[in-house]
Amino acid sequence: MIDQLEKIEGLQIVAPSLDTGRELLTEDALEFVAALHRKFNNRRKELLEKRKQVQESIDNGKMLSFLPETENIRNSDWTVAPIPEDLQDRRTEITGPVDRKMVINALNSGAKVFMADFEDANSPTWENCINGQINLYDANRRQVDFTADSGKEYKLKEDPAVLKVRPRGWHLTEKHIKIDGEEVSASLFDFGIYFFHNAKELLSRGSGPYFYLPKLESHLEAKLWNDVFVMAQNYLEIPQGSIKATVLIETISAAFEMEEIIYALKEHMAGLNAGRWDYIFSIIKKFKTNPDFIMPDRSQVTMTTPFMAAYAEQLVKACHKRGAHAIGGMSAFIPSKNEEVNKQAFKKVKQDKKREASIGYDGTWVAHPLLVPVAMEEFNNVLSEGKVNQKDDLREQVEFKADNLLQIEIEGGKITEAGFRNNINVAILYIESWLNGVGAAALYNLMEDAATAEISRAQIWQWLHTGGLKFANGNPIDFQIYEHFLNEERKAIEEMLGEERVASGNLNKAVRVFDNLVKSQEFLPFLTLLAYEYLD
Ligand SMILES: CC(=O)SCCNC(=O)CCNC(=O)[C@H](O)C(C)(C)COP(=O)(O)OP(=O)(O)OC[C@H]1O[C@@H](n2cnc3c(N)ncnc32)[C@H](O)[C@@H]1OP(=O)(O)O
Ligand SMILES: O=CC(=O)O
Ligand SMILES: [Mg+2]
Question: Is 166 among the catalytic positions?
Answer without folding.
Answer: yes
